[in-house]
Design goal:
The protein is of the alpha/beta class. The protein has 5 helices and 6 strands, in the order ββααββαβαβα. Helix content is about 40%, strand content about 20%. The termini are close together. The structure holds ligand AR6.
């Protein structure tokens, strides 16, 4: 059975050990998927986030999931896309890698990612898809881990098609 699966859906509805939030460096909420996660998790998520004192781009921090179906939320901060030559690929790669590392350290076995940086932060979707899957498969190759399922969850048809096409390269 394949550990990695690409799905269309709303990440806030996923019943997994952890969902990954595309946050900003304040960790105090925002629009997009971040806003949706905070709305569904309830105000206690923001209270816990306040104690974390922010998060640097490409790093990851963990909180409880509160009213979400997911037990935990891993908050990571993707790069704002400028021109692709300002370190964005490496930073985006590290978002996925660091989230998986933090998940492993917390005994998380099922995890769902959204397409970090592909909304407000403007990362071209095809390039973001390449980097996302490379990071996930590199992590699985290079680390002992207990993941049973890693979902890549895309919200709209266009993003789903792009990610699914790139995913085929990885031996679906
Ligand atoms: N489930 C799954 N994916 C979603 C959902 C959802 N419910 N809602 C949106 N997406 P974005 P970013 C997709 O803009 O680009 C926030 O204000 C969306 O279609 O949420 O990393 C933060 O606070 C897109 O493909 O995150 C930051 O300030 C992807 O999630 C900033 O936006 C990411 O879009 C971060 O920007």
């Amino acid at each position: 059975m394949n550990i990695v699966e690409v799905l269309k859906g709303d990440i806030t509805e996923f019943k997994v050990d952890a969902i990954v939030n595309a946050a900003n460096s304040t960790l105090l909420g925002g629009g997009g998927v971040d806003g949706a996660i905070h709305r569904k998790a309830g105000p206690l998520l923001l209270e816990e986030c306040k104690k974390l004192k922010g998060c640097k781009t490409s790093e990851a921090k963990i909180t409880k999931g509160y009213n979400l179906k997911a037990k935990f939320v891993i908050h990571t901060v993707g790069p704002v896309y400028k021109d692709g030559k300002s370190g964005e690929p490496e930073l985006l790669y590290r978002c996925y890698y660091n989230s998986l590392k933090l998940a492993s350290e917390n005994n998380i076995r099922t995890i769902a990612f959204c397409a970090i940086s592909t909304g407000v932060y403007g990362y071209p979707k095809k390039q973001a898809a390449d980097i996302s899957f490379k990071a996930i498969f590199d992590y699985l190759k290079n680390n002992d881990n207990d993941f049973s399922k890693i979902y890549m969850v895309l919200y709209d048809d266009e993003t789903f098609e792009i990610f699914n096409e790139v995913f085929k390269k990885y031996g679906k």
